């Protein structure tokens, strides 16, 4: 396409359009001609001289068209449009053409419109099939954007686009303000400076110091503060300066940094191009450092922002259908503009402070009006008065303006149906940029309308002051303006609140805080409506309005807009002007304070934005009477998080009065499935109690539950729940008396029993037993005893002291028999279950305590019932016992009742003390001694060598001493047969027995002492038929031990015949022969005193006898051993002795017979 064209043919603007399988190139050249080329045919299809459409083109033809611009716009229905900007000195012209196709590929241009523009410098323009959008720089080098509808606008009137102004060149700092705080607040106000501008300014201000550019908004704020303060302190050389000088220096350095920010913000905000998306009609400004979006302006804002010359030429029919009303509104807006332009910064600050400090805006408006009148040097009041004269009905016009700005809705729009639209809409406007655009638009509207409402309030005060019937209209002297004041004031405060929220930054919340918050919300069952994901604020600050839009509002708005049948939005292919207008129009009611919905504060609560929520409610509460209870509840949540529990409780109690009247509180009290339904107030209290419980504020739980008890006077089930709650928290706090009172007041027996059981266990665990013993337990005595008994029988005896508690409980009530029974059972179980020295010590003390109890009772009542063994107790919670085949074994229903008297207890006490003595002597016996019977204990004592103790026990329980003598005899045998080790060990057990003093000339051995102990016992404890001698001799002979002489001599005196029989039993024939010979001699009178024979054989003495049977057995045994000569000799001796004895008996018998 280059060809051999000269300089005049060079294109200054090119555009390409694809149509009918070909690509057409349109070139606007320096010779003011438009050429059309076909890429497919490689040829020029059309040349059009554009100067034909310029009214005066003579001078233009001679100049090169270097400033011309060309843009295309295509429509399926209208075809291809060409927009041409023809640049001429001191003027410019837009021409719009439609490409017309003729036969044989011939093309021509159909001129649609020519539009003339001012002398501003065109930077860029965009074309649609109906409009031209143009970007200029004016003479002051300010950005100007205008648009025009070239089809309908016959007058050629361009529409003004209101641009975001650059920040103020200077920041006003009053002497009562801190310069650092003022500048930081102004610089870091969302939407005022970009992060890039601040970072570049920071880099220049710090003289090129390398800094981390990837900073969050908060981190950037800290870096700026550090940099400015460092520069400031490094420049202050004097150690002392006055506060005024210090303040002035701070302002100087901060203003220096602010100038850097302003410089870079201006550079980065300079528009480079205009972008128009042909599919959505979205218009954007491409700037050096950012991207700006243009959005439609509402009629009210449009009128207020229009310049005076444009306002005068505004088409009244485009405002309202009623032309007179339109004129009235335009005149009213002119009055408002006159007021707004006259208000100084101090006057504006007066209204700002009134809203911030919760003072009536009407008073502030009245003060501003007085200042305006006092400082009216340009006769503005006269101009306003004359303008008011032109308004036919000012009150009605104001009412119309107020209705246009009021977003209060009758029905709750917020609870839209679920999003049942195409999936590609699910993320519509879900990004951070979209949220920023929407919320910035909302903030802009709030800012503008706050000013409108402010000026309107001042104008209404002026009307009240004038009181002119000609101005106000007949019959409207004071009533209507006063009513309008009361309508305008909440409107102003609403927009102030929305503007504040649009500028209030969201806090970055740690994940653990969010999770903790989620637990609290789960108690309230609100977690499904709130945000629970943390947001890292990197590229710029996120306001709480943006947070709300992204997390909650967007889904509601999109659902509402696209789920409605026959909606116009569904057919507009997501047209930007319509869609953004609809979204903002639906978003504002969600933020509107006086609407019944409560999603915005709820979102702040769910996102842990408690500081912001607290300020929001503070600004809202004095004047907004909608959702007052919900606000109180939210404030309570804030106080709870801030650690001010008592303030939180006050707020929760205030909110209770609105339960059942507000949607948020109604959702809060929805009952769960299966939950007992009570009154709304009680359900509300229940939710708050759960919340306070989870946060860990038992004192507040008690206070609120006590308040709820009065509410539940007629509902015993709720009363029982609340009393249980009060009891639990009093108990947790250690308020034992209060917990007991709450327990006694519980109307539900089962809950009362549960609380009682808990009280017993907790007080035992805390060792606060005195309280437990001393509580009166009116009508609960048996239950308390049962609980303590069941615990006593179910837990480890050495870890818990339930038996001792029960003993003290009965003693305190003078029930000594029960106390004795308890201690006796305790002692029995100690013996069975705690087989240690400590257990036996406690067992003895238990039996002593039981004895003491019975001694305090009259003798006829001094008895107890033998406690059952452990297996019979039916312990609560214990698993059933089963037989080998798995079947549950039958629990015996009856048992034999055994009565124990005082003497029985004394015996048990003796037994326990003896067991303790045994274990103290030999710890190895502890495992068996605890529950041993008296007989078993005797055996253990004998084995341990405690013979004195064993004899004492036998005498107490009337047991024979045979085991003692047998055991001692066996020990003597062992000592006699043992070595030195046995001798040394024997002294231990010998020392434990009382030996009678004996003076000897030589040192006796342990064996001697053992035999001496045995001898002393045989003397000390005689028995019938010499039982103990016989058992000792039996034991000795059984072990082949020769009988000691003292034992033989002792037994000869008692029962010589039995000794003979024992000799025969053990085949001791020689000993038996000696005994028989001695015995016969003793009977005949020789040594009779050694055999206990008082009167030997004589005619005058009583009859005597010999154990002939035993002697015959001896003779028989000797006779049978004929081979043993020794035995034969013995036989002969005995035989001769018997013969001799018999002769003497015969003589004595005859003498006795003769004597009679």
Strand segment count: 17
In DSSP terms (H or I, runs of 4 or more residues), the helix count works out at 45
Distance between the termini: 188 Å
Radius of gyration: 59 Å
Counting helices, strands and paired strands, the structural category is alpha+beta
**Mean pLDDT over all positions:** 86
* Biggest sheet record: 4 strands, antiparallel
Please state the overall shape, judged from the principal axes of the Cα atoms.
elongated
Regions with pLDDT < 50 over 5+ consecutive residues? 414-421, 474-478, 529-538
Helix content: 55-70%
Which band does the percent of strand residues land in?
Answer: 5-15%
Q: Looking across the biggest beta sheet, what order are the strands in?
A: 1-2-3-4
Domain NUP160 middle TPR: 592-856
GO molecular function, one term: structural constituent of nuclear pore
InterPro entries: Beta-prop_Nup120_160 (IPR059141), Nucleoporin_Nup160 (IPR021717), NUP160_helical (IPR056547), TPR_NUP160_C (IPR056536), TPR_NUP160_M (IPR056535)
Domain NUP160 C-terminal TPR: 901-1155
């Amino acid at each position: 396409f280059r060809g051999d064209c000269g300089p005049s043919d060079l294109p200054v603007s090119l555009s390409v359009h694809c149509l009918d399988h070909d690509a057409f190139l349109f070139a606007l050249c320096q010779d003011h001609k438009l050429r059309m080329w076909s890429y497919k045919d490689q040829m020029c299809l059309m040349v059009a001289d554009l100067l034909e459409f310029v009214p005066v083109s003579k001078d233009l033809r001679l100049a090169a068209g270097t400033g011309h611009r060309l843009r295309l716009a295509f429509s399926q229905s209208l075809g291809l449009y060409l927009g041409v900007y023809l640049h001429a000195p001191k003027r410019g012209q837009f021409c719009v053409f439609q490409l017309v196709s003729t036969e044989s590929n011939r093309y021509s241009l159909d001129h649609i419109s020519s539009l003339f523009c001012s002398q501003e410098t065109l930077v860029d323009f965009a074309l649609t099939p109906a409009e031209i959008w143009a970007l200029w720089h004016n003479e002051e080098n300010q950005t100007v954007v205008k648009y025009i509808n070239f089809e309908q606008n016959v007058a050629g009137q361009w529409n003004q686009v209101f641009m975001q102004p650059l920040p103020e060149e200077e920041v006003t700092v009053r002497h009562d303000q801190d310069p650092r705080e003022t500048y930081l607040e102004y610089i870091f106000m969302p939407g005022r400076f970009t992060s890039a501008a601040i970072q570049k300014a920071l880099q220049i201000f710090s003289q090129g110091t390398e800094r981390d550019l990837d900073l969050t908004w908060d981190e950037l704020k800290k870096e700026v503060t550090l940099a400015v303060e460092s520069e400031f302190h490094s420049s202050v050389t004097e150690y002392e300066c006055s506060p005024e000088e210090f303040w002035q220096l701070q302002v100087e350095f901060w203003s220096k940094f602010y100038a850097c920010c302003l410089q870079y913000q201006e550079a980065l905000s300079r528009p480079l191009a205009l972008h128009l998306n042909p599919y959505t009609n979205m218009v954007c400004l491409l700037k050096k450092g950012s991207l700006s979006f243009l959005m439609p302006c509402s009629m009210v804002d449009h009128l207020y922002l229009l310049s005076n010359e444009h306002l005068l030429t505004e088409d009244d029919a485009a405002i309202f259908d009623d032309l007179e009303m339109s004129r009235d509104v335009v005149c009213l807006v002119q009055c408002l503009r006159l007021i707004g332009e006259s208000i100084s910064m101090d006057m504006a600050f007066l209204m700002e402070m009134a809203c911030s400090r919760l003072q009536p805006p009407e008073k502030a408006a009245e003060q501003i009006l007085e200042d305006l009148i006092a400082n009216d040097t340009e006769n503005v009041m006269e101009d306003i008065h004359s303008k008011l004269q032109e308004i036919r009905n000012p009150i009605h016009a104001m009412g119309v303006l107020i209705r246009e700005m009021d977003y209060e809705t009758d029905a709750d729009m917020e609870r839209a149906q679920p999003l049942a639209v195409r999936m590609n809409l699910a993320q519509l406007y879900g990004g951070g940029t979209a949220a920023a655009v929407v919320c910035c638009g909302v903030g802009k509207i709030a800012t503008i309308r706050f000013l409108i409402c402010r000026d309107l309030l001042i104008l209404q005060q002026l009307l009240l002051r004038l009181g002119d019937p000609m101005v106000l209209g007949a019959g409207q002297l004071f009533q209507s303006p006063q009513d309008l004041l009361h309508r305008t004031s909440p409107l102003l405060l609403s927009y102030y609140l929305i503007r504040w929220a649009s500028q209030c930054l969201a806090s970055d919340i740690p994940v653990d805080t969010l999770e903790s918050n989620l637990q609290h919300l789960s108690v309230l069952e609100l977690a499904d409506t709130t945000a629970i994901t943390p947001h890292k604020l990197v590229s710029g600050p996120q306001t709480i309005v943006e947070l709300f839009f992204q997390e909650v509002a967007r889904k509601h708005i999109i659902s509402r807009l696209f789920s409605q049948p026959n909606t116009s939005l569904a057919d507009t292919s997501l047209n930007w002007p319509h869609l953004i207008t609809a979204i903002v129009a639906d978003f504002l009611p969600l933020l509107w304070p006086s609407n019944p919905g409560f999603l915005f504060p709820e979102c702040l609560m769910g996102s842990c934005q408690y500081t912001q929520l607290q300020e929001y409610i503070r600004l809202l509460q004095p004047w907004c009477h909608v959702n007052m209870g919900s606000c109180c509840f939210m404030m309570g949540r804030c106080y709870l998080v801030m650690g001010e529990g008592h303030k939180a409780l006050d707020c929760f109690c205030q909110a209770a009065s609105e339960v059942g009247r507000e949607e948020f509180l109604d959702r809060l009290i929805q009952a769960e499935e299966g939950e007992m339904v009570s009154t709304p107030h009680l359900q509300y209290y229940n939710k708050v109690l759960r919340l306070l419980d989870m946060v860990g504020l038992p004192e507040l739980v008690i206070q609120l539950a006590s308040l709820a008890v009065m509410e539940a006077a007629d509902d015993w089930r709720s009363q029982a729940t609340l009393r249980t709650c009060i009891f639990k928290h009093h108990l947790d706090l250690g308020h034992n008396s209060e917990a007991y009172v709450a327990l006694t007041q519980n109307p539900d027996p089962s809950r009362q029993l549960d609380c009682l059981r808990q009280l017993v266990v907790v007080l035992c665990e805390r060792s606060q037993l005195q309280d437990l013993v001393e509580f009166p337990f009116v009508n609960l005595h048996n239950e308390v005893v049962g609980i303590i008994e069941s615990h006593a029988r179910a837990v480890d005896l050495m870890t818990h002291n339930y038996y001792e508690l029960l003993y003290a409980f009965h003693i305190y009530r003078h029930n000594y028999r029960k106390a004795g029974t308890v201690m006796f059972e305790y002692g029995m179980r100690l013996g069975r279950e705690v087989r240690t020295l400590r257990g036996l010590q406690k067992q003895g003390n238990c039996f002593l305590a039981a004895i003491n109890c019975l001694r305090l009772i009259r003798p006829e009542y001094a008895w107890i019932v033998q406690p059952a063994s452990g297996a019979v107790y039916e312990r609560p919670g214990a698993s059933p016992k089963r037989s080998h085949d798995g079947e549950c074994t039958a629990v015996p229903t009856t048992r034999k009742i055994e009565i124990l008297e005082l003497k029985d207890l004394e015996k048990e006490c003796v037994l326990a003390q003896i067991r303790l003595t045994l274990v103290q002597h030999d710890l190895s016996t502890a495992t068996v001694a605890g529950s041993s019977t008296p007989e078993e204990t005797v055996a253990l004592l004998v084995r341990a060598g405690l013979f004195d103790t064993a004899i004492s026990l036998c005498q107490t329980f009337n047991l024979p001493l045979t085991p003692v003598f047998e055991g001692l005899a066996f020990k003597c045998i062992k000592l006699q047969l043992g070595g030195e080790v046995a001798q040394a060990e024997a002294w231990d057990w010998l020392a434990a027995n009382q030996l009678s003093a004996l003076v000897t000339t030589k040192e006796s051995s342990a064996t001697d002492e053992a035999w001496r102990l045995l001898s002393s016992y045989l003397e000390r404890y005689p028995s019938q038929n010499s039982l103990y001698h016989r058992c000792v001799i039996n034991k000795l002979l059984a072990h082949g031990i020769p009988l000691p002489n003292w034992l033989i001599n002792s037994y000869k005196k008692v029962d010589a015949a039995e000794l003979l029989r024992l000799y025969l039993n053990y085949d001791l024939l020689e000993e038996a022969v000696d005994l028989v010979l001695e015995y016969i001699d003793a009977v005949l009178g020789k040594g009779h005193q050694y055999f206990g024979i008082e009167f030997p054989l004589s005619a005058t003495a009583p009859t005597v006898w010999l154990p002939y049977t035993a002697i015959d057995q001896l003779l028989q045994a000797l006779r049978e051993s004929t081979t043993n000569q020794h035995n034969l000799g013995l036989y002969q001796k005995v035989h001769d002795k018997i013969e001799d004895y018999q002769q003497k008996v015969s003589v004595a018998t005859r003498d006795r017979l003769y004597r009679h």
